[in-house]
From TrEMBL:
Protein name: Transcription factor IIIC 90kDa subunit N-terminal domain-containing protein
Gene Ontology MF terms in the entry: histone acetyltransferase activity
Origin: domain of life: Eukaryota
Region (Disordered): 1-21
Family matches, as PANTHER family: GENERAL TRANSCRIPTION FACTOR 3C POLYPEPTIDE 4, GENERAL TRANSCRIPTION FACTOR 3C POLYPEPTIDE 4 FAMILY
GO biological process annotation, one example: transcription initiation at RNA polymerase III promoter
Matching Pfam families: TFIIIC_delta (PF12657), zf-TFIIIC (PF12660)
GO cellular component: transcription factor TFIIIC complex
TM spans (from-to): none
Gene source species: Hypocrea atroviridis (strain ATCC 20476 / IMI 206040)
Domain annotation Transcription factor IIIC 90kDa subunit N-terminal: ranges: 26-539
Length: 705
């Protein structure tokens, strides 16, 4: 299978529309999530669709993202969401009182939301960094209108033996893992009951970039303007009496920082005031890349307050051991701050790069107001600037936007592209979409990328909303019983319309579009946009939306050499394979055709070094003769053959003791089996660390389960 026979990226049709913009999120492993009014759509990619010709033929009719899950996007706060989280900490939650089950009377300072009128719809989704959850996969976090953060992801099932034979990913082990915010209990060792009920309404959140397997930092802001930083861990319970799969995987959450994030504009403005402007955004927080220095690492949180963008530096000291609490502190004040005229649904995004300027390191990004974009640059180290004193929006001229910002079409999707480390652009490269795309506005898609081909979805949407037909044909097409979102369906409908009169007739544009979000793939080789198509001649009756894709295509001439795109940043194996299929990325050793497993990876594998002598001491389980290894297969004198563990090089001598990689399909022994062999042949279980065996030793991919 070559890269151009990968499953095609067909447009995805959804049966509902999002309640808010920026509703699209792409994970580091190319998993796609969309928040709509009725469901959260979660799509899992198929990285190669098989490695043999027969598999290629079978998958020829299959499209990418055929595997999906649609949990409800209306989530009411319930103590049962965190029942397992508290039980893992040894806390038993009391049963709800009669009549209180399912009731929610609101939380926070809002006149409406504090009274319990929020429906509980999901308004934003974001994937965690790689390595946090089960099998080192990212987890998905959703923000609801009730002020909760709900986490979805895979959950380890050590008691199930059926999952060990699975060769492809499914949603069988997906669960609602835990939550934060309005009326949810979380473990608290300082409380007399062992837990506390969170009495705050969360309005925004953001995951920090990857730190280490099973460890991450999460920041959120509540409606009181407090910025909170928590550590999140997924690790084995420290119990030396148990081994391997018998050990319990648990989640540990801990608050480390709580600071004032209201900014310098703290005066209260009556909503009846003529100068009042709406504020607040579910997208008002974002972490910068980590700056790693001797003994610590720092990142800056960009947060949006009332007409203010603040930058607060967070410091992580020392090595964060898995299962131990990290040393996380915040600087006493903002690194710097920017006063800007901002409205609701403002957005901040960082460029994924750190630029060195002598002894100083800076990072850059984009603020969406949301009607225009404002680039910024922040110093990641060095002295802090003087805090801005409290003042009014009139003193800093941030009450109203400048007259040269006339657009009333808000930005609903923004991505900052990965730069070339050797060629720093004057401002970050970005692409954006605005809410309304019609025949009369030309700014619905904007980018400052060097000139090149337009994304496929820009051309498709542009062609459809620029199309002109007679008004009678448009009315006939809309009123007919046959309706289709496809181009062919629209053409057929128009062709069935009555012929136009001989005299000039009124020409109309039959369609307009709403754009709800824009996302980029892990290596920035693809983009996806969420759009809904509307009729211009009749009220819209169908609440549907579509995900459109743009991907790299090869040159038309067969004699031209293939131009492979070099990706500068570190990606997961899954992300690299996705970019190889759709982003013209480089080959992936051990996965793509013609690329053998990296010898560097095999030689540097600590488990292969640990078990290099054990490999030749294992007898055949059928005839007890000595095994010999050749071409990744172990055979005995009687020709009994066994597969080889890609991580340790040990023959797999029994069923149910190994796991299969979700990318290269090779098998690796479970940690429990490695510990058993280490105890039997090496006399020590400690030689196999908790972090060993979490990814495939052949390609570095994540296991199916």
């Amino acid at each position: 299978m070559d890269r151009f026979r990968a499953r095609p990226l067909q447009t995805l049709s959804l049966t509902s529309r999002p309640p808010s913009p920026h509703a699209l999120a792409w994970s580091c492993d190319a998993e796609l999530a969309i928040a709509t009014q009725e469901s959260i759509y979660i799509f899992l990619p198929d990285y190669l669709g098989g490695h043999d010709a027969d598999a290629d033929e079978r998958d020829a009719s299959q499209y990418q993202f055929a595997l999906s899950l649609q949990p409800s996007s209306v989530i009411n706060p319930s103590t049962r969401i965190n029942g397992q989280l508290c039980a893992q900490a040894g806390v038993k939650l009391p049963a709800p009182r009669t009549g209180e089950e399912g009731s929610f009377r609101g939380v926070g300072n809002g006149a409406v939301t504090g009274s319990g009128a929020a429906l509980g719809q999901v308004i934003r989704v974001e994937w965690s960094p790689s390595g946090l959850g089960c099998n080192s996969r990212p987890v998905l976090m959703a923000l609801t209108t009730t002020g909760n953060l709900i986490t979805f992801g895979e959950q380890a099932d050590s008691q199930s033996t059926a999952t060990s034979s699975m060769r492809t990913r499914t949603f069988k082990n997906w669960r609602m893992l835990w939550g934060l915010g309005a009326k949810l209990p979380i473990p608290d060792s300082e409380s007399g009951d062992g837990y506390r009920v969170m009495d705050e309404r969360i309005t925004s959140f953001s995951w920090a970039q990857e730190i280490a397997p099973g460890r991450a930092l999460l920041a959120y802001m509540n409606d009181s303007g407090e910025l909170v930083v928590m550590s999140v861990q997924y690790h084995l319970r420290r119990d030396t009496s148990k081994r391997g799969s018998e050990k319990e995987w648990i989640w540990t959450l801990m608050q480390h920082v709580r600071i004032d994030g209201r900014g310098p504009h703290k005066e209260a403005v009556d909503a009846q005031d003529p100068d009042f402007t709406p504020q607040g955004s579910a997208f008002s927080m974002k972490w910068s890349p980590w700056l790693i220095e001797d003994g610590y690492r720092t990142a800056t949180i960009a947060y949006i307050a009332k007409n203010y963008v603040g930058f607060r530096r967070i410091i992580l000291y020392g090595d964060w051991e898995r299962g131990e609490l990290p040393d996380v502190v915040s600087e006493r004040s903002d690194t710097t701050g920017i006063c800007l005229p901002l409205s609701s649904d403002s957005l901040v995004e960082w460029e994924d790069a750190i630029w060195a300027e002598g002894d100083s390191y800076t990072a850059r990004g984009i603020v969406s107001t949301p009607f225009t974009v404002k680039p910024f640059q922040v110093l990641l180290n060095g002295a802090l600037a003087e805090p801005k004193p409290p003042h009014t929006v009139w003193e800093c001229a941030s009450a109203y936007p400048e007259s040269d910002e006339p657009s009333t079409n808000p930005i609903t999707g923004l991505v900052v592209h990965d730069p070339d480390p050797e060629n720093k652009p004057p401002i970050p490269y970005y692409s954006l979409v605005r809410l309304s795309a019609t025949s009369t506005n030309l700014d619905w898609y904007q980018t400052n990328l060097p000139e090149g081909n337009l994304p496929q979805w820009v051309e498709d949407i542009g062609d459809q909303h620029a199309r002109l037909v007679p008004r009678s044909a448009a009315l006939y097409g809309v009123d007919s019983d046959f309706e289709s979102d496809s181009e062919n369906g629209d053409d057929r409908t128009m062709h069935e319309a009555p012929p136009a009169q001989a005299e000039p007739v009124l020409q109309v544009h039959p369609y307009r579009f709403r754009l709800w979000g824009l996302a980029k793939s892990p290596g920035d080789g693809c983009t996806a946009v969420l759009a809904s198509k509307h009729d211009t001649q009749h009220p819209d009756r169908r609440g549907v939306s579509n995900v459109h894709f743009d991907w790299q295509v090869p040159a038309d001439a067969d004699d031209k050499p293939l131009r492979v795109r070099k990706i500068s940043k570190t990606l997961t194996t899954e992300g690299r394979v996705w970019e190889w299929m759709y982003g013209m990325g480089e080959d992936v050793p051990g996965v793509t055709p013609g690329q053998k497993t990296s010898t560097t990876r095999l030689q540097s594998s600590p488990l292969r070094q640990l078990f290099k002598d054990v490999v030749f001491r294992l007898p055949c389980v059928f005839c007890s003769t000595q095994l010999s290894i050749k071409d990744d297969v172990a055979t005995c004198d009687n020709r009994h053959a066994f597969a080889i563990c890609a991580t340790s090089g040990i023959p797999i001598l029994a069923p149910g003791i190994s796991r299969v990689c979700g990318v290269c399909k090779m098998r690796c022994l479970k940690v429990a089996e490695l510990e058993r062999l280490a105890e039997e042949y090496l006399g020590s279980v400690d030689a196999v660390g908790d972090s060993q065996g979490e990814v495939c030793g052949g390609c570095g991919g994540k296991f199916v389960i």
